[in-house]
């Protein structure tokens, strides 16, 4: 009761803003594999893998709920990881047992595995595929399913990580070697190849590197999907205020346009993916409520700009904690998966930089045919009241996400419609909306989803 009174006092001052959509002309498509998760190759080492309790029923429950999707295993450590041979100091050995454990994780979760191979194994200037062949032989013999392969990680930065340059053209030739290697194995000859996994295109040198790779790709195509990485905040020190900074969010739009323009020039039919992305590199902040703004905005902008998959860094530690308890972005991700699928709709009126709205067809698996789902991000320091005149008088199913405790944006828990979400004996809680008509009241600095189950939009029908 106290909460309701408080909210109504807060919102009576706010003027209602009418949000409108173009319900005729879709601007994109969000498929069932739109959101994936990563596991950093860093965790392939025995000391980490031995601690992963693959038999945990909680792990099954929370992972399975995010299916279907991709599990991408990669990262800086991929380029110093060898399979089944002793590694020198500072490097990692991926043991056959741990490799099978990764496969088990993917299978129990219902995730398609994407594996990043070590491009740093080199012979006479070219990629040495010997160790990869031994991994593929073992995998093939043991029924390990790998949906896609990658070669190297953020290779445009090799000078920084490994003290030498691997030119883009050379990397592309190495991808050709990978492609012929996969053809040696019936089980993997149809596996997809995703790369080159370069870093932010806002950096001129990176953009040139990516463009050179794509130019080479144009004459010798190897990629099924173009993979890029994105960290809005990179490795600079950041704070929670950055997470609600609309200017920073808008830089992603510039980056998405750059990616599209290079793709259209050299590989117009190859889908764009973010193969590794989060707000920043460290786990601080990205496991807290405030990160949800950056995350949902990225999902919205990427879908509008033709990206067909966005893979979140990282499942362990940013979506679930060490006991597999979901963190705030886990629930935002789960709701996105349940509520959104199909055409992306254009929002035509009622939004601005600090009141951001994304509109999609609702996922048929959980919502009526023709239903529409909107994502709302209120970055403002005051409440906002939203109306939707195109669906006037219709029932709305509202999922408002607010901090789960008094830590505000820094909260490591989240509340759905005022009720804090948590597991019950390892089971996910029901994610029930509140149902009403009229306007939607968004608290200051909060986000959520609204579904119009009876929107009856032709674009969103089966
Ligand atoms: C993050 O916010 C601080 C101020 O709180 C600002 O100085 C810094 O430039 C911001 N970082 C980015 C990457 O925008």
TrEMBL record:
<dbReference type="GO" id="GO:0016798">
    <property type="term" value="F:hydrolase activity, acting on glycosyl bonds"/>
</dbReference>
<feature type="signal peptide">
    <location>
        <begin position="1"/>
        <end position="16"/>
    </location>
</feature>
<dbReference type="GO" id="GO:0005615">
    <property type="term" value="C:extracellular space"/>
</dbReference>
<keyword id="KW-0732">Signal</keyword>
<dbReference type="Pfam" id="PF03662">
    <property type="entry name" value="Glyco_hydro_79n"/>
</dbReference>
<comment type="similarity">
    <text>Belongs to the glycosyl hydrolase 79 family.</text>
</comment>
<dbReference type="GO" id="GO:0031012">
    <property type="term" value="C:extracellular matrix"/>
</dbReference>
<dbReference type="InterPro" id="IPR005199">
    <property type="entry name" value="Glyco_hydro_79"/>
</dbReference>
<protein>
    <recommendedName>
        <fullName>Glycoside hydrolase family 79</fullName>
    </recommendedName>
</protein>
<dbReference type="InterPro" id="IPR017853">
    <property type="entry name" value="GH"/>
</dbReference>
<dbReference type="GO" id="GO:0016020">
    <property type="term" value="C:membrane"/>
</dbReference>
């Amino acid at each position: 009761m106290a909460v309701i009174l408080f909210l109504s006092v807060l919102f009576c001052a706010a003027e209602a803003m009418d949000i409108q959509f173009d319900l005729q002309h879709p601007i994109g498509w969000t498929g069932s594999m739109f959101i994936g998760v990563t596991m950093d190759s860093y965790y392939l080492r025995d000391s980490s893998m031995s601690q992963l309790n693959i038999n945990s029923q909680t792990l099954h429950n929370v992972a399975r709920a995010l299916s279907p999707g991709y599990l991408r295993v990669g990262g800086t450590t991929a380029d110093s990881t060898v399979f089944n041979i002793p590694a020198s100091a500072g490097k990692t050995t991926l043991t056959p047992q741990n490799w099978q454990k990764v496969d088990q994780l993917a299978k129990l979760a219902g995730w398609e595995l994407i594996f990043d191979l070590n491009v740093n194994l080199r012979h006479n200037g070219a990629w040495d595929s010997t160790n990869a062949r031994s991994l593929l032989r073992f995998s093939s013999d043991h029924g390990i399913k790998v949906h896609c392969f990658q070669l190297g990680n953020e290779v445009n930065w090799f000078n920084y990580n490994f003290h030498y340059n691997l030119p883009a053209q050379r990397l592309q030739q190495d991808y050709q070697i990978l492609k012929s290697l996969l053809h040696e194995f019936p089980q993997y000859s149809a596996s997809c190849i995703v790369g080159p996994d370069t870093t932010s295109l806002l950096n001129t040198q990176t953009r040139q590197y990516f463009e050179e790779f794509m130019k080479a790709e144009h004459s010798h195509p190897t990629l099924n999907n173009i993979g890029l990485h994105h960290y809005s905040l990179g490795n600079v020190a950041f704070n929670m205020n950055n997470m609600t900074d609309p200017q920073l969010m808008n830089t992603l739009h510039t980056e998405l346009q750059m990616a599209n323009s290079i793709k259209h020039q050299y590989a117009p039919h190859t889908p764009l993916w973010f193969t590794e992305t989060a707000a920043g590199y460290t786990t601080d902040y990205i496991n807290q409520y405030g990160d949800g703004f950056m995350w949902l905005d990225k999902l919205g902008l990427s879908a509008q700009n033709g990206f067909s998959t966005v893979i979140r860094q990282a499942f362990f530690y940013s979506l679930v904690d060490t006991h597999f308890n979901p963190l705030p972005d886990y629930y935002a991700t789960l709701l996105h998966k349940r509520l959104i699928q199909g055409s992306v709709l254009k929002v035509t009126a009622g939004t601005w930089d600090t009141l951001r709205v994304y509109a999609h067809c609702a996922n048929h698996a959980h919502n009526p045919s023709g239903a529409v789902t909107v994502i709302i991000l209120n970055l403002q320091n005051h409440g906002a009241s939203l109306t939707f005149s195109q669906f006037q008088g219709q029932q709305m199913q509202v999922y408002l996400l607010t901090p789960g405790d008094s830590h505000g944006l820094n909260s490591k828990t989240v509340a759905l419609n005022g009720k804090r979400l948590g597991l019950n004996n390892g089971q996910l809680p029901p994610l029930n909306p509140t149902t009403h008509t009229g306007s939607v009241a968004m608290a200051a600095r909060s986000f959520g989803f609204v579904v119009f189950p009876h929107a009856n939009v032709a674009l969103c029908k089966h």
